[in-house]
Records
---
Amino acid sequence: MEQSERRGSTTFIIQEESSAGAFLTPAVSISIDEGDEDDPSCPIVTTPVNVDDEGHPTQSSTEAYQSFDTVVGAIEDVAVGSEFQALQSFYLSKYWKDFEGDENSESTHEQFMIFQNYSKEMAHLIETHVKRHLGNDFSFSNFIERWYGTLEEQRQSNNSSINSLGVHINEDCSQEASHQNPTHNFHMTCEIESLLFTLTDFCKFKELMIDYRKMLEGKTPTLSVTHQRLDLPH
Amino acid sequence: MVLLQILRKLKQKEKEVRILMLGLDNAGKTTIWKKFNGEDINTISPTLGFNIKSLDHNGFQLNIWDVGGQKSLRSYWRNYFESTDGLVWVVDSADKMRLEDCKSELHKLLQEERLSGATLLVFANKCDLPGALSAQEIKDALNLDEIKTHHWQIVWCSAMTGENLLDGIDWMITDIASRIFTLD
């Protein structure tokens, strides 16, 4: 998988318009020009992770909440970054033809292997990026624990929203989004939740691919013509 | 990949149980899978890839994976071992000719490191067919008593009628829950 191949893909723009790429929409709380990823003066870098005397992250202060938001910010930052979008575009444009049928049809071993590679590469990208901003000592484990706490809280505050087919976070948050508590600063955006679950949930990944395929084949026929022309040898 | 490991752990907290269903081809895996989903079982063709579905059952979210069992495709099974809580091994109780093959494939799986923590449920399917072996006979033919590394149980069933399917799965979930969710 050559970098140049990814960058050479012309589907970047298509993908932003895709409903499948909903979680790529920049979150309200962050602006894309917040700072250069590699710029050490970036606000994200200057917000320290809170540690106690022995260097362990503190668990329950206001600062801890802020550092949670900092991590969310860092993940959001990578999600709207060009590297991330290029990687996802690469997978979408290279493999959409391998995803036929609908969500319920039989899946192929090839699809699963594509998913495994996608998952590894995306997770690696996010980890690398977040650690670059927050330091190598940063613990994903603590972060996820806190995140889980917020999910529990959300679920309790609106526990009627679990449907019969699954306890998926996305369903919770689609409802939750409409009546958010504005004072709740311990909240991760739905886009990021969806993104993280695409990495471990094959069905979510398959949905993403199928939505992309549908978009190419149905809603925007001109784009699929563009795509076919790219495949011509001359 | 730390991030992926943690996300998987999070899923355990969601009381998500991952069940992998394997067995020789024509054992009835997809019929069982469809029966659980309440889908039509009259038009089932051999599975070349796999099927997956999430179901809510007794407060657990079951992710049931049904992977095709043709000989040439069995090398793909290993792709699906990761994070498996329960292994369902489906046997065609009327297929006496292939019991030896069935036994060796099962015991090969039990050696797999990534399945070492999984509970094993053997479904002796098609028990209602004339000439089919009983669950006891299947147990002996597959040398199940030799298994010391996994919690296991054998249950006779009929995927066509649905008999005993729930009993089997309920045993499995109880066993898994006692290992994984004891902290709750």
---
Amino acid sequence: MNEIYKTDALIAEDIDAYLETHQHKTMLRFITCGSVDDGKSTLIGRLLYDSKMIFEDQLAALENDSKRVGTQGENIDFALLVDGLAAEREQGITIDVAYRFFATEKRKFIVADTPGHEQYTRNMVTGASTADLAVILIDARKGVLTQTRRHSYLAHLLGLRHIVLAVNKMDLVGYDREVFDRIVTEYRAFAESIGIVDFTAIPISGLAGDNIASPGAAMDWYDGPTLLAHLEAVELDQSADQRKPFRLPVQWVNRPNLDFRGFSGTIAAGQIHPGDEVRVLPSGKTSRVAKIVSFDGELDRAVAGQAVTLCLADEIDCSRGQVITAANSPVEVADQFEASLIWMDEEDMVPGRAYWLKIGAQTVSATVAHPKYQTNVNTMEHLAAKTLDLNAIGVAVVTTDRDIPFAPYAESRDLGGFILIDKLTNRTVGAGLIHFALRRASNIHWQATDISRDHHASLKNQQPKVLWMTGLSGSGKSTIANLVEKKLARMNRHTFLLDGDNVRHGLNKDLGFTDADRVENIRRVGEVAKLMTDAGLIVITAFISPFRSEREMVRAMMQPGEFVEIFIDTPLEEAEKRDVKGLYAKARAGELKNFTGIDSPYEPPEAPQIRIDTTSVSAEEAAEQIIAKLIP
Amino acid sequence: MTIQSLTHLQRLEAEAIHIMREVASEAEKPVMLYSVGKDSAVMLHLARKAFYPSPPPFPLLHVDTTWKFRDMYALRDRAARKAGMQLIVYQNPEAVKRGINPFDHGALHTDMWKTEGLKQALDLHGFDAAFGGARRDEEKSRAKERIFSFRTASQRWDPKAQRPELWRVYNARKAKGESMRVFPLSNWTELDIWQYIHLENIEIVPLYFAAERPTVIRDGLLLMVDDERFPLNGETPVMRSVRFRTLGCYPLTGAVESRASTLPEIIQEMLLTTTSERQGRAIDHDQSASMEKKKQEGYF
């Protein structure tokens, strides 16, 4: 047992002294990048084993497992220690992210263990997001590989300040210095090309334990630190963040009674003391810190990484999602950004679709434009891309529906890193890193017009509406829409009918039928319909509009109650049987791609305002039902 | 400017507080599962810190089996009162009716009282988020579980459909009927828990400290005869100086022989000991993947 971890003697003789030392330990989080072939699991297993994080019963289970399914013959297979779920163990690979813990005299360590293959890029990104440091493992026999470049790129992208190049399996190359030097030189050239300015290279053997906790006897030519000594010495982000200006994203407003109002959150950067001047964003209001409240009494100061509650001297508005900053060094506020995106969902990104964007404690609605480019994570080449699929990384413009306080990711992970959430499935579908703001919201002004939308509507003596008909191709939307418009016209209502086919001949003739184009098609129609309601019209639309999220997007554009979703409900068999335009036949024959209901999905409305069952009523009756619902 | 390096315990504390505030802000009806063990004690203490001077904005839920140690029931009621929180005690009515017990019913005991009881209690009150004190260092399948762990409307856990968790940004959105389990102590180790209890002077059940207690040995487990319901098959309980490293139903929880009667002595013993914490629990013994299977079925 190496003395760097802990001294049994001290524990046995003077437990109080031991506890005193150990309660002052700091904590480093790191990620290991590499594959099982590079000896990654063996390295982690050794760190746990050497630091006595493995108990006798676990060791017995390990020895048992090693004989049964291990790859090291009669020897202990350390890799089995860090393999997790049963399903994965059977496949002989680790997937997902697993967190491991060990400690030395100076620090506690949390290791994020992620798989190395390209299909697990999202897992590595997840592990790296909370890490201070990355250990990039290289097999000394193989040198710098494609995966080495990919891992380094991802670690750098996620803003890790410390990179360790651990050249493993030195025992298998005779502890040869030249091999090590050659690999380091090659790696340095690559690292510099992607902007990594500094890294620490260490020759190790995970199997033999060389330069892990103690120097390798066979490598006296190496005079740098051992891996553990280095992990114990690097500066923590939590310390570095304290030198930056103060930032506190407000998580929760603490109001136990009328006399107390505190703002709770985790300090993202800087330090704070009672009396410090602060500014609340986006409002820009300023105040002073009256006190820093805690369960253990008031504090003289608080620093980055602490979860605190501040009371301000003035009664200013401040709620969850806002950011309290140093008064003389506020963050920016904007609603459009350029950002790097990492796509994490099986379903491709849909440009133009509205997603939830969560940054700090704030959740807003946001759309992502077509990517400017996608980065090939193996070669760092920029490729043209229409969308991003699982594990793809690209750069795109993100637009939020309101101003948000932010900082570039390079300055602050807390204020520059966001996740994207699908509005229907609630899955976390992507992660984003803000580069910079494209427009500051304060520069955009609405042109004020003297004749208001209410005025337009009152001249026509009607309430503007959008009658949104959705349903499969051939369900009868256009026919019914046409009848509804005729009936309304007879009642002296001012209407306009936007029909799917007609719009595609003009406004949207540049769009096809991919998911992304369908979204854009509906977005444009929504904007046109909105202008028409501003003009006071009753707008009738007849579009397949297959996706719920886009229909909801259009609803959100309108005034409350203005959008009426009408589901023209015709079962697929029925629509296909009618096949008025002969399109289903073509789609079945493979001549039409992305045809709704055949090879492109239709998401029926869950709670439409009006549902028309076309198998039981005629088009004429349907139109009457709609009118009756609208004008009772 | 002087830089203040936070200790590992301060950082773990901040992380747990951050998680609790996030849930309090985003969940509609959160609850904290309280099992009266040392991890629950730490979790409750952190909740009081997170929302001070307000009391934690959620109740405590104890899914009771009626077979806990008497000392546990006493501390449970006292701790809830001290925190100014509502305490909900739930006992599966069917288990009560059928008199399910660990002596006659084996695995059914855990299944009905705990797994089923928990599901029923969450459904009954409509809780959509439940804090639990599980840690990733406890068992292999937990090492990969998220801090925010989703359960389907039927309370099942799907290890393949876990959401990525980046930075300190947690996605707490869910559909109606779905719920989440949230583990603020995910990154704590057993040693961290003990050190924190020591440093913060947190009250824990006296059973963690060694004392003379009436015991019998069964199936390799050293069991304490906590009340007259323990059927003695001709055995005579022997007074031994024992303590517990983990607490559950007393007929299922193995004690260790020990003289450690202070926290530093417990920590000392723990550091010098050579068997892992859960070994005292009969539940994990069957097979190494048993916990994962139980979790998929809805065990916490």
---
Amino acid sequence: MDECILEMRHISKNFGGVQALKDVQFSLKRGEIHCLVGENGSGKSTLIKIISGVISPEPGAHIAIQGHHVAHLTPGESIARGIQVIYQDLSLFPNLTVAENIGGTRHLREGLLVNWRKVRSVATEAMTKIGVRLDPDRLVRDLSIADRQIVAICRALAFDAKLVIMDEPTASLTRTEVNALLEVVQDLQRKEITTLFVSHRLDEVIEIAQRVTILRDGEKVGVFPVDELDNQKLALLMTGKKISYARIAGPSDTGDVLLEVKGLSKESNYRDISFTLHRGEVLGIIGLLGSGRTELALSLFGMNPPDWGQVLLEGKPLSLRSNRDAIVSGIAYVPEDRIGQGLVMPQPVTDNVVVTVMKRLCGRLGLLDLQKRRDTATEWVQGLGIKIPSYEAPVQTLSGGNQQRVVLAKWMATEPRVLILDSPTVGIDVAAKSGIYDLIRKLASSGIGIILISDEVPEVLHNSHRVLIMRKGRIVETLDASQTTEKELSRKIHVA
Amino acid sequence: MTDGGARFDLRNLLGGGSDIRTLAMLLVVLMGAFAVLLPGEFLRAATFQAMAFQLPELGLLALAMAVTMLTGGINLSIIATANMCGIVTAAILTRTVPGDVAVGAAGAGYILLAMTAGLVTSLLLGLLNGFIVAYLGVSPILATLGTMTLIDGIAVVLTKGRVISGFPRAVLAIGNGDVLGFPVPMVIFLTTALAVGVLLNRTPWGVSVYMIGSNQTATEFSGVRVRSVLMRVYMLSGILCGLASLVMISRFNSAKSGYAASYLLVTVLASVLGGVDPGGGFGRVPGLILALSILQVVSSGLNLLGVSSHLTVALWGGIIIFITSLNLLRSSRRLSKRSA
Amino acid sequence: MWRRLRTHPQRNEIFLSFIIAALSVYLGLATREFFSLENLLDVLLSYSFLGIMSAGMLVVLISGGIDISFTAIATVAQYTMSLIIINYGGNLLLAFLIAGAVGIFLGSVNGFLIHYLKVPAIIITIATLNVFYGLLIAVTKGRWIYAFPTWFYRVPSLFSFTTADGTEYAVTLPIVLLVAVFVSTAFLLRRTAVGRMLYALGGNQEAAVRMGYNILRLRLFVYCFMGLLAGVASVVQAEIVQTVAPNSIVGRELEVLAAVVLGGASITGGTGTLPGTVLGVSLVAMMHNGLTLMGVSSYWHQVFVGAVIVISVSVTAWSQRAGRGRHRVEIEV
């Protein structure tokens, strides 16, 4: 059991002056379940790319796989030596069938012709290995995310993997699906296959891991047995800073009722949702992916019209047929997918901030008043403390935290009364996170009603006055945040 | 329309397309070369006047192509649209006003009517494209490939493939006359280009066009009426085709389906050369005008040298490949400098 | 039933087959000639050129690329081939070899440019279309070529037969080649590793890179294959029309694209089958043929084809849009 399947020493990597990895040592034992944890930019993806042969380390590095020293690791070599990486995007071929994704991709490297019978048998064999059954003839495009993950694991097994590396595997899975995944991984362990989880947070996979390696700023902080770590210690090790989670101050429902949702339902989305939001209140909605939380948020933002039920803003019923209705009524929405939905990444900061209020910036002849446009951008960039190289810089050149502030800025420019934040700190460093939390509190104290949707327990608990628990399309419980502990809340959402 | 991840490529990061300075430099170098090769022949008012008569047709059509490319789309039906507009205008003209005579007030009215009818036709065809792209969600290349075939077909049916010719002299002035020494087609082109530039850079619609070109979903999440913006893009493209056709038919004194067919793909090249990112989101009118000038100078210069016009076309293609390689070279150098 | 059909991998082919069957029945009833062997062979012959090139276009689209320049490649190949066999003699095999080689060479130029310049294939191939064609015409001054050796005028037929009423039918080389190209392309796409890698590349390029596929080699293969078929098709076309005119092929590139798209190939890559393309080309061919047989003026043909393209792409997009973007949550009851 203590035999090393992978041994890496003196791993450094320099990207045009930026030291992504500094003399890192890293090793994996045969059959262990290991976690590699670090913030964005800590160098963990660089390390993975070196293991998979996509990039080479600086000279002086030593890599040994199953005891054999490898001088120059290429992607082909890495695969041949039994290393399989399951990327976060899974890297499947959506236009091909389950069978071909699992059995075909290896097959293609081995000859000129395709033996379809062999493709199928390899696929079936891989699926039997971990005891799953998917229709081999279905297109991967038509599968759920969880099933796609299964396909990706099966593909790795079809390559005779000795080491399976999973990059953020639980990010898009529900708890039930995570449990299924963990079982599969434990099953791999029994077959002496090593699993390396890569994550930017201490998540569910840690329950079954043996050791954790922590990276910070390209350096290895250390290797720790799992039972020596908890959330706070991990955060400290990852960031090198003591992060204190102060709870949000003040009572919740002193303000007037701002938003009232009555019996809102939508087929296959959510059912019978009722709650109230007060002026100056932060209302947390916690639920896992697939609980209907995002669908509900989109309905309130007019982009997913409900089948029945009512939404009242300051007592007046709202018609929410498009997000423009919502914006005009004073509802703003910060989506979870910042890159796809939140920002137009290649375009300038200014345009991203003013896009929501362009009509207001028009002067004579309906032409944009450039002075007003610039003033509006300046007002919010400064108001929210956004660090930018220039107003014309593409948003994608900013850091994650500053990008999210640009999203907030464009909505603050509309002077919203209700602000819906859907997982606002996804992919943001711990330090930048607390900056976003401070902003949330500041906005709430200015009288805005905030709905904070997330699946991170501490985030919701420490920044909300009240917390609604959402599960399978319904609100199952309402809690007073100040009367609830992290453990308690965590247990409540994970009840199957 | 592609997913967010695919948009993260190098060119977008660096602003995409060609650089105005490179284009300006290229233009100067080319003019210098022709001035040396053609002493006393190239740098003459007549040469430039001739160029000013030729450039606007391709220029207006290239604008029609470029506005759709800014949204990440394409409009393959521009030539068909222009010809249809020309045919409608020509049909009304030849039926109402006898050719080659001086025109009275009634005649002027008919001319106006004919042109309005032509422009309305092109606007409606743009509307059709816009509807199919924006509301039915068909990829622009397929939608406009279909409408191109359809519109061309209808034009052939209407004209039985024949030429409609013989316009009043007043109409011919549009294509061949001048105002204070400025060729009318050039005046029309520059005015239109200015208007399009203002629309793109100084109106909410214009900002939305660029935003949609880079990320349609995020733009929609910001409350922009994406469909309506797209619809208007294709309508503008249609109108620009209409203007091009008015210049064209009055220069040729005739209209026919299939005129200027070889311009279709050249407009794509001109747009890309002018800095329009084929993926959408980037490109400005001044760059496009520079690109068109380069193409025109090459064409006129080679013509004066007695080189086959087909070699000119080959050279146009070569210039695109040259400029894109140059951009690639520069951007990779810039990238390594930035991270250093 | 309808739901199963909608998720069936071959739904597009099934749907097209229905339309073609219905159209055949109608044309068979409306005209006497439609189902005659003579008509069938006629249509096959006159669409052999377009059909061969559509197979190449299909392969390009599946890989996630596009090629606009193949008509220019075909023209260059045709010219080179003609000049060589006229001036130095030769035989039909040599003609195909020359045209094929020219096609492969020009295709490789496309492949290299697209791979290294990282500019969308549509832009590169529009540029090379202009370069190839412009250079050719500039060099040849756009002359037509008629004076082929006599052997070139005899279109070989594989077998011919005479029916009872005395008419002679022949299955000529173009038809044989068309079938051969269809069969080998189908084999390539379905049964070879390269073919499956092309689907993979078109479906998810990033994943294909991570799988360790050699993208440059795949791209070169795709554009060379297109070039090869353009070369082959150009000889077929010269055989059929017995002249080489510089402007007879260029300008038809979008027609080929339309037929392949009608056959269900996706413009974004990864989807499309050879049977689908055969059906797409057949649909276009049948419309032209049917309209001719029914005495509809040829002016109208393009209107019909255009309408069919517009309707087909709209229906496809609409049904996809209706099915996509649905959030589904399991609601606890």
